[in-house]
Amino acid sequence: MLDIPGMIEMASSIMTLYPGDIIATGTPAGVGPIRPGDTVKITFERIGTMTLDVVQGETGKHSIFAIPPVSQ
Q: What distance in Å separates the CA atoms of residue 41 and residue 53, rounded to the nearest whole number?
């Protein structure tokens, strides 16, 4: 498992993060695998709701995810 600073480091190594960006850090119990064609709806208390269509990327998995996370 990554801690919050580790998640920010991983995300910023493959994309530019901007003020206001959100890094979702988990899923509720009982949520199964997410697949292309699914829709993900995230509600942020006092902020609003975000709905996203899940699509398969053109390049597949990024190499950063091949590196096992360091346990704390």
A: 9
Residues 44-67: what's their mean pLDDT? Answer: 79
What sign has the CA pseudo-torsion 44, 50, 54, 60? negative
pTM (predicted TM-score): 0.49
Biggest CA pair distance of the chain:
36
Q: Which tokens hold the place of 12? A: 């910023």
Phi and psi torsions of 49, nearest 5°: -120, 145
Residue 68 — very low, low, confident or very high, per pLDDT cuts 50/70/90?
A: low
Residues 6+ apart with CB under 8 A from 49: 41, 42, 43
